[in-house]
# Entry
Amino acid sequence: MITLYHNENAATLRRHLCAVAARPDEVMALPGWSVTMLPGAARRMRQVLRATGAALVYGDCWLRQSDGSLRMAKSEEWQPGALREELDMGPVWMVSPVAMESALSTFGHEYTYGMLYALRLALQRQGHVVRLGEPLCIAERVETAADQWAYVDPANRERQIELEDICSAHLKAVGAYLEGEPARVDRTNTDEGEWPVEASVVIPVRNRVATIGDAVRSALSQDADFNYNVIVVDNHSDDGTTELLDSLAAGDSRLVHVVPDEEGLGIGGCWNTAILHPACGRYAVQLDSDDIYSSSDTLRRVVDTFRRERCAMVVGSYTLTDIDGNTIPPGLIDHREWTRLNGRNNLLRVNGIGAPRAFVTSIARDLLFPNSSYGEDYAMALAISRRWHVGRIFDSIYMCRRWSGNSDASLSPEKLREFNHYKDSLRTMEIVARRALNRD
# Structure
């Protein structure tokens, strides 16, 4: 077994990887793990590698807990859109020597941070990747896994730039990289037909009686020099949310309280209900039922960005807070990895784009959201950025309030893996779409 370590410099790591290419059927233990192979596991990996002609074989493991017990740790399914650096492919790999040699030959230089990330993407280009849904080893973490917010931490900016370069090179190699400036929105997209108001704040909600009042009052208190309304799509709440919204709507005609005829809608389905509603304005601006805008000029700033930059989508920045508005780590989330020229390509590498998100309604109506309750906004951002300019606001205009009732609070490893797999599937479809666009 060849064991790799995080603290190895690029030259040493390359020597170890070259050793894998020189020693057929060698098991490679990834950095951050102490590993004991299970009996017959290496032979099993070797058989699958040879029988399938794969470039890379990986699988699951038994994870040693702090109390000495074992827990099954499932690796994530690989797919072409699995471009996240943190994709969990287990602690041990077996790589085809031919694929390894070919992959290493594609490296233009030694990477300081992203050697293994570059290797994985390069191996994908050499042949297919096989996941074994079975435990191959007993593993124990010897290094702490990266924090979920690490990619937006300014201290990690140098690392993120290198990872962006690696991913961009991969997208170019597979024909999915988008060159040049995206299109700007013209009058046919924003001025066609009559719009009841200039902007609509859209709030999907189900059973948030504790927070929906704050969200609605935040939206209705916006100071704007244009007409706007607030469309709340109440997804059949049964905890008092419906009654509260009826009361608020009775006091302010700008609040449009919609209960869909259909059941079975996710957040994306609720968004479609809102943007297709006849009361929806020229621009549709997101506000989650747990959250509030950071000031009374948020809506005005979003609309000003639409008008000034002629963009199809505007994305702001937000501050993480507790339910009382106290800032909690990491504080400001501004997604500065989004750049004017390469943001839409780099979006395929990262899991988010920021908040609040806002859309030219006519374009969103043409695309529509997937009927899911996770990643629906990411899917829309991918589709819009494929063709259109996305405007960014990099200072905080939104307060994302974290509390025990959040739908993404305390996600289990299984649920997080499910969510990540879904976003990888969105990226896979987007890669196909972008390759087709580049061929046209």
